[in-house]
Design a protein that fits this description.
The chain is of the alpha/beta class and 289 residues long. Helix content is 33%, strand content 21%. The chain has a seven-stranded mixed sheet, with helices on both faces. α1 (30-51) packs across α6 (217-237), α4 crosses α7 (242-250) and α6 (217-237) runs antiparallel to α7. The two termini are 37 Å apart.
């Protein structure tokens, strides 16, 4: 939809992808937005990783490493091993952070690792933005060594129409259109447990974290940074008006505002030492909030 003058010819726009879209690293606020994402997500991510039988000798892969916090954490704990921080755009990653850390430019939808390369593979808020996400998940399971672990965390965004706030419904309908235009699926996380079981992983675990807006704290800081960055791009492109963006931001000044926008779902599973080991019967579902 276009709100400014005549309807915009969207066919004239360049092809939109994660790399040049509303969360592009070319945007001046993206580094800080990613750091806020890390602050809100790292405690649960590290709690899950600590539950695994992590060894100093492990070979680890952090897919979509972003600003690097998980890769750095793994490098500190796998001092005798090797950690690959892989991202399609590595400008926010510090190659000098550790001598067992490798920063690699990597397109997960196109590039490959040899089968059996890693003891641990982690991805967070990545595969929902990859159009070939189902196929990539299967490939990642093959990159594991026997006995290795795959840990994947993704947001499940609720439909905007389910919110009681008209301004939020209008804003996030436009955001959902932008996600869809770049090939993202913000409700793909619902498929994760089943897809990981179908990929042959066992000892499955699931953790959930509700993300409420309006409760202050680091999550609100991340959400506000995202709304401002995404909103500015959408106003520029005519997806929403400045008044609609201002109305969305004004909700956070209302002390009664609270809205459950998403649930973050993390699923982990192990590649069996023997492919003949059954998946069914070994599934665990510990729920963490």
């Amino acid at each position: 939809m276009s709100h400014a003058g005549a309807p915009e010819d969207r066919s004239a726009r360049p092809t939109v992808s994660y790399g040049n879209g509303i969360v592009s690293k070319d945007l001046p606020t993206e580094r800080e937005r990613l750091r806020l994402l890390e602050q809100g997500s790292d405690p649960q991510t590290m709690a899950i990783l600590r539950q695994l039988p992590l060894k100093a000798s492990w070979r680890c892969l952090d897919l979509g490493a972003g600003a690097g916090s998980t890769a750095y954490w793994l490098a500190d704990r796998c001092r005798d091993g090797h950690v690959v921080a892989a991202d399609i755009d590595v400008r926010f990653l510090d190659r000098t952070r550790s001598d067992n850390l490798e920063v690699r430019e990597f397109d997960v939808g196109r590039d490959e690792f040899p089968a059996g390369s890693f003891d641990l593979i982690h991805a967070r808020s990545l595969l929902c933005h990859v159009p070939t996400r189902d196929t990539v998940l299967v490939k990642a399971a093959e990159w594991l060594a026997p006995g290795g672990w795959l840990v994947v965390g993704e947001p499940y965004m609720f439909a905007p129409e389910t919110s009681p706030y008209p301004a939020l419904r209008r804003f996030y309908r436009a955001v959902d259109e932008r996600w869809a235009a770049q090939g993202s699926d913000m409700r793909w996380a619902r498929r994760l447990p089943g897809l990981m079981a179908l990929a042959g992983l066992h000892q499955l675990g699931v953790a959930t974290r509700p993300n409420c807006m309006g409760l202050s704290g680091v999550h609100d800081s991340f959400v506000l940074a995202s709304i401002r960055q995404i909103g500015d791009v959408m106003v520029r492109d005519g997806d929403i008006t400045q008044a609609e963006l201002d109305e969305m931001l004004a909700l956070f000044d209302d002390t009664t505002f609270v809205d459950l926008r998403s649930v973050f779902i993390t699923v982990w599973g192990q590649r069996p030492l023997d492919r003949r080991e059954p998946v069914r019967g070994s599934v665990q579902l510990p729920i963490m909030t």
